[in-house]
Amino acid sequence: MKQILLLIFIFFIGFTAFAQFESNTKFKPIPPANMGIKTNKTVPKAPEETPSFAPEVPSIKAPNVYDSKSIISNQKPSNSKYKIGEEKNNFTMSVENDFANPGDKYVPKMENDLDKALRSEGLKGERGILVKRNIDFGEIKTKSKFFIVKLRDFGAIDGDLVKVSSNSRVLVAQLFLESNFREIKINLDNGFNKLDFEALNIGTLGGNTAEIRIYDDQNTLMTNDYWDNLAAGFKATIMVIKEE
Question: What does UniProt give as the signal peptide span (predicted)?
Answer without folding.
Answer: 1-19
